[in-house]
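Instructor's aside before we start: the two examples that follow are unrelated to each other. I chose them only because their records fit on one page, so don't look for a connection. First example below.
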Amino acid sequence: MISILRASCLIEKRSGTTSETLEGTSIDRVGERAKTITNANTCIITVSEGRYISRHLSDRKLPFTRARQMAEIDLSEGTPFNVDDVHICFTETSDSTGSTNYFLIRKGVIDPVIDSLVDAGIRPQSILLKAPDGELQLSLQSLRSVHPVFVRRTWPQKLLIASLVLVVLSGILTFGHVYYRYAQADEKLAAQVDEKQKAALEVRKMLDRRAQDIAAVEAARKSKAQAVPVVRVWEELTRILPDTAWITDFTLNGDNLSFSGSAVSAAGLISILDASPLFADPSFTSPVVRVPGQAGERFAIKLSVVRG
């Protein structure tokens, strides 16, 4: 028997009419010390007075689920404890018409003891609360809510679990067989699809190249039909520019024309070019510069060619 005292634990070994006790065992080492003294695989945990709190809930017997819901409400409203820090427990009672009380045990008090016992290979069987008029045993539902070690499966439950495992294994084997046959068929189909995809890809590449060639020819044809001939642009420039202007650089890129040169009066060229029906938006691309030692001015002009 493991008794949880105020500051430590008491380990008691009973053999017939004799008993042996060990006091002052720390909570985190109770499992190790109990295994050394008793060499037992099971034990009973007792919680002494002062290590738990008892609260009255109802003057009549309540079902466990309903009682726990009411206890959580009472805990949050009537105590300073947090529901996550304590275990809400109920005791076994044979009086179906009696009142309902619940008990609070701090998790920091009971959990380390149970964990230490489980780590040492000792399985707690029950938890008793020491009271002035005797010992109160926690109900099975309360024990299960305190720690998973108290969850015990009955033979019908074990048989049900075994049956479910067999059904799952049978399903896995059946699925594996079906999947194996499906994988073989899928592999064969994938090989055939791969061959067809390669052939289709070659045809697609050929069609894409043909479409690109057709598009290039069509674009060249449209560009040629829409573009203003260079000869026409040159003829227009030589026609409208005065004899005092000379062109030294000429560039025609689609509808954009730029040229540079020298003229006696470069400022007058803009109005001349703007008056031509073939040109639009003429402007200097850089300041007009008079070259020392020469009679003319250096200029650079850009404009747009109007398609007719």
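Example two begins here.
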Amino acid sequence: MFRHHDRGGRTMGSLPTVVGVDGSAAALDAVRWAVLDAHLHSSDLVLVSAMPLPKALTGVGILPEPVVEQSRSEIRTILDEARALASRVSATAGPIGIDTVSSENPAVATLLDLSTTARMVVIATRGLGGAEQRSLGSIGFAVTTHARCPVTVVRGWSGDGLDTTHPVVVGVDGTRASAAAVALAFEEASVRSAPLTAVHSWSDADLTVGLPIRGLEWPANRPAAADQLTRMLEPHTRRHPTVAVRTVVVKDRPVQALLDHAQGAQLLVIGSHGRGGYGEMMLGSTSRSVLARAHCPVTVVPSPGRRLARITATAAADPE
């Protein structure tokens, strides 16, 4: 990977915000969003573009120099456009440091490598690869599944700034991954001076299907579910007393509940997996469905095991 430094007048102290760009309009929207978010968190911005080159050609193993130079020229053009846009947005939001990274490795491998020392990775729903707007795409799926830091997928954002009246919404299910998502959601609501909506689904299953089960009547269980949600939020409400919190408890179908309450939200925060398990192996079914259907930026917070690996890598990179 090749890195270009353009500090924009100052150097930040926190971990950088990494943005994947490919020259598409969707990726430029992600850049706009990331600049504003990085400014809120006093974070540098790292713009990344990757264009893998074939390892061999007709058995020779060496590409003609014009082919290599054409590929590198395309990457430089993409990064120059993204950096110019980031500079224009930061001139209004406030100065931040801006780096660019060009890579001849696959985009997924490049972003995952950078995620070990990043505050956040920001990507668009889809890029030049096309795919339907509702589809996350292979790169987005792989990065949200395996990144060592939170990943924000930008979709449904107007680009007009961050409106403090629109809430940050977070899914809460009592798992360790959910606890990490709740902590980040409170932080995001605090720096945005925005209200927070916490959504808790008592059951992951659709309880309207099949015969009623004795003891699982929703009216009888709703108070206990509401109390559980209050207990899960209590440490965070103490830590962020200025954040106005609205709690929502529903019987079942967490995906639909999150999508309903995320309408008009400025950010939706979810854990990488829920109560279904397989936390280190794959993105949970609820998270996948929300990412595919949400109409606002969605931040996926990794499991504690992946976050610990990121912290270890960061410490190794900066022994002081």
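The CA atoms of residues 76 and 102 lie 8 Å apart.
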